[in-house]
Amino acid sequence: MDFIRKPRVKVEKTSAVVNLEQLYPHNVTLYRLPPTEDITLQEFEDLALERLKLLRIFEQAGSRNLRFLSDEWKEHITSEINREGLKGYARLFHNSGSVKESDLQARRRDTISHFILRVAYSRSQDLQRWFTAREMEMFRYKFSLLTASQVKEFLEINKLDYTPLTEEQKNEVKDGLYESTMGQSASKIELLDFYKVHFTEVLDLVKGRRCFLKNGFAYVNSSDFVSIIATKYQSELERGLQVAQRGLPESENDERLVSVLKGIHTSYTGKDYSIDKGESVPIECLDQLSIKSFPLCMRSCHEILRSKHHLKHFGRLQYTLFLKGIGVLLEDALRFFREEFTKTMDLERFEKGYAYNIRHSYGKEGSMVKYSPFSCMKIIMQAVGPQDTHGCPFKTLDPVALKSKLTSYGLSPMHVQEVATFATKGHYQLACDRYFEVIHDTKLDQGIQHPNQYFELSQAVMGSREQKGGTPANKNVRKVVKKEVNSTLLEGDDDELWNIAETQENEMTQKKAAETVKSEWDDDFDISQVESMEF
């Protein structure tokens, strides 16, 4: 039987693909020209949050003290990108060489999202520094993954003229090259390409003594060539941020964009911790749960409420939304706050001044908005006064007060110092991570970004231990449920709630406060006793 090979049909590229190739010719770009196409507001938000997720992955890798571009660092970046479902960026970082339409779309999303965040992060010097640091990390990572041919293509596209030294030029400075190129044999050094640039273009290499200097010029080997390009990119990025800052007034003429641009840095990009129907946490469990399963911010709110029988408006709002997120039903939340508040005020005052706020937090009053519990970043960024009860204790408490609180919770002096050191350095979420690890005697494999995430991780750890020990987990406590990631902006949706709370609280504070009743709550109650309790 004869087989006839059919000629392969050549697939013609569509005009859209050709256009994408012209606009986005390479995985690595200097972002010199902003995109001009029209996009929907929804895509605008999606692209911004998608890139923010990525930049936070780079930030998290640095906070874990992983050496930049080490194998461990790269493994962490790759695993987190996959875990977050950032397929487009995975394509950019691990391209196969062939360019498909999906690769071109990834480049498009990369470029558009960069310019969106460039505008959003141009608002202040602090935001600019954060954005620049993360973008530089991503740029260096992408560039380090390029092959020699891809680097050459990048230089040609961006019209960058960098020519390696000739053998004759290398011989003139070979002794200096040998001395400055650490960890390489003479034979390998002879095979390396070297570039001659002004020393100001590679200050990081000069600082680390990783290049040979002569007459104001630095001789850089090919493995460190990224420093030359990164310096050029950083200069262009910083200039671009200045241009974006000057254009902010025009950008904010569109009210639809204002909330996105202003709130992007504090927006939460993880799981949506809404209440699960059919699963609830009884308020009788809160005392026990607060000891291990509440992060410090919520444990503090709980203790203040139990001891003083009152929370100021922002503390009450922060705590109410957290309780809603872990599964406390509205009726139970009302009963819980009513029992506490009526120890220092009459029932009528509570019903008129506070019950409405709680129902509003659950989306049962006013505009019926489904409010989300506050993320760590949102809590950290809140302004906190001397007598306020909200905010992040790792930020708001002075070192002495923080150490005293941690010691009262039974942490050893060594662990107290570890947690407090993170807080003192401004690493509030790392302090919370370490606090979790000490309280639960375990190691975290992910950073905590949300108080309700803390609660679920705690329940997962304790539930796992109960199963290993053969003891059934407490059925009254809500089970940990996996949910899909919901990347919605959480800024701006609770403005009405905050305003109502603040207005009513101001009215209440004009009246004479009742005398504080001493708390009878047992701080030393063992959480393990929950199994023997009957509700």
Automatic annotation (TrEMBL):
GO terms for biological process: DNA replication initiation; DNA replication, synthesis of primer. [4Fe-4S] cluster binds at residues 297, 376, 392, 432. Keywords: 4Fe-4S, DNA replication, DNA-binding, Iron, Iron-sulfur, Metal-binding, Primosome. InterPro entries: DNA_primase_C (IPR058560), DNA_primase_lsu_euk (IPR016558), DNA_primase_lsu_euk/arc (IPR007238). Binds 1 [4Fe-4S] cluster. GO terms for molecular function: 4 iron, 4 sulfur cluster binding; DNA binding; metal ion binding. GO terms for cellular component: alpha DNA polymerase:primase complex. Its cofactor is [4Fe-4S] cluster. Residues 287-455 form the DNA primase large subunit C-terminal domain. Pfam families: DNA_primase_lrg, DNA_primase_lrg_N. Regulatory subunit of the DNA primase complex and component of the DNA polymerase alpha complex (also known as the alpha DNA polymerase-primase complex) which play an essential role in the initiation of DNA synthesis. The primase subunit of the polymerase alpha complex initiates DNA synthesis by oligomerising short RNA primers on both leading and lagging strands. Belongs to the eukaryotic-type primase large subunit family. This is DNA primase large subunit.
